Amino acid sequence: MILINLLPHREAARKRKREAFYAALGFSALVGGVIAGAVFLWYAAQISNQKDKNVVLETEIKRLEGQIKDIATLQQEIAALRARQQAVEDLQADRNMPVHLLNELVRQLPDGVYVTSVRQDGQVVAVQGVAQSNERVSELLRNLGNNSPWMTRPELIEIIAGSVALTPRDQRRVANFNIRVRLLRASEAQGAAGAASAASAPGKS
């Protein structure tokens, strides 16, 4: 006996396939939504955590900036105190500068050189005098520049030829000079002496 199926089996198969496809599509959408939600929540947690760290960092930065301002203020106060201390020490040392000036002039004057005027303006000293020759003036400049621990940078302002009458019949040619030299403070003289000692130490060994 032959059985013939007259039901629309092709339509039923297509319907089952559509239902399976839609079910798979819905399941995929659901899984994708769950994954997307999980990723979103993870990123939101990371962002919130980073914001909390940023708040902590900003608080610490503000605290450190306050400390840096305090340190800068202290450094300025220390620098001002040191400047005042140095000014007081310089004033105390300057009391002896005329003594050093006269002592050095006496020590460094070569024979045949006579000083007629000494004028001090701060640390600059103007010296006028008479020398037997230009060579004597050059020797005085060398002595002041190289041999004196209290004087530095001697400068010849002018030198003028002249004459001196020893007797009515005996006249000598002389050189009238005007020089300028810088007088060192005690702290500067000590620093220059220390540098000179350090420079000469390798030669001694």
Largest sheet: 4 strands, antiparallel
Number of strands: 4
Give the rounded overall mean pLDDT: 82
User: How would you classify the helix and strand content by structural class?
Assistant: alpha+beta
Helices and strands in order:
Layout: H1 9-94, H2 97-108, E1 113-121, E2 124-131, H3 134-146, E3 151-165, E4 171-183, H4 186-204
Antiparallel strand pairs: 1-2, 2-4, 3-4
Summarize the structure.
This protein is an alpha+beta fold and 205 residues long.
Description:
It is a single chain. By secondary structure, the protein is of the alpha+beta class. It is 63% helix and 22% strand. The chain has a 4-stranded antiparallel sheet. The longest helix has 86 residues, at 9-94. It is rod-shaped, with a radius of gyration of 49 Å. The termini are far apart. 10% of the residues are buried.
Tags for this model:
single chain; 22% strand; 4 helices; alpha+beta; 205 residues
